[in-house]
Amino acid sequence: MSARVMESADVDDRAELGDGTSVWHLAQVRENATIGTNCVIGRGAYVGPGVSLGDGCKIQNYALVYEPAVLETGVFIGPAAVLTNDTYPRAVNPDLSPKSATDWEPVGVTLREGASVGARAVCIAPVTIGRWATVAAGAVVTTDVPDFALVAGVPARRIRWVGRAGVPLEDQGDGSWRCPQTDTTYTEHHGVLTEDN
pLDDT tens digit string along 47-63? Predict the structure, then answer.
C-alpha cells in the first residue's frame, strides 16, 4: 500500500509519506515533513518544512501546521486550526528592513498522543498539548495543556476532564473520575489526571 496524493496537492519530493496516507486537493506538504502511516491531510491544509506527524493523524481542511510542530500518534487538528511558530511576529526588523529566515528562530507546538484541537483554535508556540487532551473550537492556547484536559476560551483554561474517547468524565468523588462511554477510571491528584490500571 502506498500514499494517495490528489493531483492538485503540492507535496515536496523531500517529504516522507507513510503507507495509507491521503493528501487531499490543494493541500501543501513542504520539504522534509515526515507523515506517518494512515494519516489524512485535508483539502487546503498546510504542513510546514520538517513537521513530524505520527501514525493515524488527521489534519482537517485548511488547517495550518507550521514548523517545527511535532504531532504524536493519533492527533486530530480541526478545520482551519492554526499551530503557530513565531514568538514575536514581525514582517520587518526595527530598522524596517524585511525580515529574512535568519532574523528569527521558529518555535513549535507539540501535541502528545491522541490529542485533539478543535476547529479554528489557535495554539501559540511554544506550547505542549498533553496526551488525549482536547482544545475546544475557537480556543486560543497560550500555556501548556495537561493530559486529559478539556480547555476552552481566550485564553484557554481547563473546564473539564476528558478520557481517551473524548467524552467528558463523570466525577465519582474523592478525586476519582469515570468515562461514561468506556467505563475507564481516572484519578486526579494535585491537578494531574492519570488513567487507572
Answer: 999 999 999 999 999 99
